């Protein structure tokens, strides 16, 4: 009885162990398959990343900046390197058959480079595939020969259309055609590879390659569209600026000319006294001077070049400017405090520097209608002469600070905005920098930095 029980127990344990072994083996096989699938997916994603990176660099830094032939050469180089890298990171199934996304750079390079580029890329692909050897070389040759023929007829249609959807559709058709040709070649020449597992693999391969091709084509078209849009916006901005300048010149110059014309007409009156004629002549000359100053400001902004370049002692220049603006400051109940370092020299044009600093100081004084204090500090900072001009006026918010120096922007009730534009233009011409700090109700500080003069200057 005991022997029978032992036999039954042994038989039961043996059968359970066999079941457990089968289950564990199936589990291990399933885990291995999952690992293989995950690794294959990683390889595909690496291929897409390599292709995308090279085309991104090309679009961002190279395209449309070189001659057409040079552009074709660069597309060939980028697509060729991408093909070689894709062939270097492949999925090896069996009997030397290699699968990767080499068709993606081949298709994209051919579509954007043209027929000549397509032929060269085909040669690169074929030669490198032959160098790698493997049983699938002749199959690869047949697949890509047929794909080249397909591209030969698709490229003209791709170049004729500029619509994003049509280009994406053509890219999908070409990519799908490449995979279908591959499947057809395998069925005809390598029937041993045909099974359900391989058809599943090719289905995934078709999806991944199509998505990769579409993503790259979509990125290229969007990048080109954004570049064209930015170029058009810059052109429109220039036209807008030109129209604003024309309108402003017309307004600013027409007013003094109209006044002058009126006084000249009045001078025709034979009953005018000499005193009245003298008065009209003075008014006319003042208005003509005002028109001349406006035109000079425009020319300074349009062409901020320096003519009488010399070594400027910044201390002496500031002393001169203070003498010029001090009466205006006293008239507006503004006290000017000056602090200076000795022996700071810069390279520039004295008159332009005067124009620049006087403009800033005058604006600062006008921003203190109830009077106040203006501080002008000169010091050396990081190898530069730094001039800070601080007032206790009404101040500006961030939006107003950002718009300073732009055409026709002014914070004053009366003004053309030309003065600040000229300031920015002069500072740029003298290789200087300008920084503005301001707070509403507390005042504004302009910090001008100019490179110090050295012996070479």
UniProtKB/TrEMBL annotation:
Official protein name in the record: histidine kinase
Listed GO CC annotations: plasma membrane
GO molecular-function terms, A-Z: ATP binding; phosphorelay sensor kinase activity
GO biological processes: cell wall organization
Chief site of localization: membrane
Record's keyword annotation contains Nucleotide-binding: yes
Membrane-spanning residues: 41-61, 73-93, 105-131, 137-156, 168-190, 196-220
Subcellular location: Cell membrane
Catalytic activity: ATP + protein L-histidine = ADP + protein N-phospho-L-histidine
Occurrences of domain Histidine kinase (ranges): 248-454
One Pfam family, short name: HATPase_c
EC number(s) stated in the UniProt entry for this protein: 2.7.13.3
Organism: Halalkalibacter nanhaiisediminis
Alphabetical list of CDD domains matching this protein: HisKA
Gene3D superfamilies the record matches: 1.10.287.130, Histidine kinase-like ATPase, C-terminal domain
The keyword Transmembrane is annotated on this UniProt entry: yes
Alphabetic keyword roster: ATP-binding, Cell membrane, Kinase, Membrane, Nucleotide-binding, Phosphoprotein, Transferase, Transmembrane, Transmembrane helix, Two-component regulatory system
Topological type in the membrane: Multi-pass membrane protein
């Amino acid at each position: 009885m005991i022997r029978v029980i032992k036999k039954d127990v042994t038989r039961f344990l043996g059968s359970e162990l066999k079941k457990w072994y089968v289950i564990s083996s199936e589990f291990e096989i399933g885990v291995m398959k999952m690992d293989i699938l995950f690794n294959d997916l990683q390889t595909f994603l690496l291929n897409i990343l390599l292709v995308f990176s090279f085309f991104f660099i090309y679009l961002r830094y190279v395209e449309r900046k070189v001659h057409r032939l040079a552009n074709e050469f660069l597309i060939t180089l980028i697509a060729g390197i991408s093909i070689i890298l894709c062939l270097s990171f492949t999925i090896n199934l069996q009997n030397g058959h290699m699968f990767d996304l080499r068709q993606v750079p081949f298709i994209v390079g051919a579509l954007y480079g043209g027929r000549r580029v397509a032929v060269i890329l085909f040669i690169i692909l074929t030669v490198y595939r032959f160098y790698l050897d493997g049983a699938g070389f002749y199959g690869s040759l047949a697949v890509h020969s047929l794909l080249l023929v397909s591209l030969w007829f698709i490229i003209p249609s791709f170049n004729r259309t500029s619509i994003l959807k049509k280009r994406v559709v053509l890219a999908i058709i070409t990519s799908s055609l490449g995979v279908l040709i591959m499947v057809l070649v395998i069925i005809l020449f390598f029937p041993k590879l045909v099974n359900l597992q391989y058809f599943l693999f090719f289905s995934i391969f078709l999806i991944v390659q199509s998505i990769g091709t579409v993503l790259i084509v979509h990125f290229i078209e969007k990048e080109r569209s954004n570049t064209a849009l930015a170029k058009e916006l810059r052109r429109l901005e220039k036209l807008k600026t030109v129209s604003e300048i024309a309108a402003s010149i017309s307004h600013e110059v027409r007013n003094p000319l109209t006044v002058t014309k009126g006084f000249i007409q009045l001078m025709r009156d034979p009953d005018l006294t000499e005193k009245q004629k003298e008065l009209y002549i003075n008014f006319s000359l003042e208005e003509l001077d005002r028109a001349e100053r406006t035109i000079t400001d425009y020319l300074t902004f349009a062409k901020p070049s320096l003519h009488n370049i010399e070594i400027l002692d910044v201390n002496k220049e500031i002393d001169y400017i203070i003498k010029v603006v001090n009466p205006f400051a006293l008239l507006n109940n503004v006290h000017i405090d000056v602090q200076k370092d000795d022996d700071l020299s810069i390279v520039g044009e004295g008159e332009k520097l005067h124009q620049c600093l006087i403009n800033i100081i005058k604006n600062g004084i006008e921003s203190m209608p109830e009077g106040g204090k203006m501080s002008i500090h000169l010091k050396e900072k990081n190898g530069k002469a730094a001039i800070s001009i601080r007032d206790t006026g009404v101040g500006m918010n961030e939006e107003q600070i950002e718009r300073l120096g732009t055409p026709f922007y002014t914070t004053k009730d009366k003004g053309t905005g030309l003065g600040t534009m000229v300031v920015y233009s002069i500072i740029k011409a003298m290789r200087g920098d300008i920084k503005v700090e301001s707070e509403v109700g507390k005042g504004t500080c302009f910090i001008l930095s100019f490179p110090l003069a050295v012996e070479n200057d």
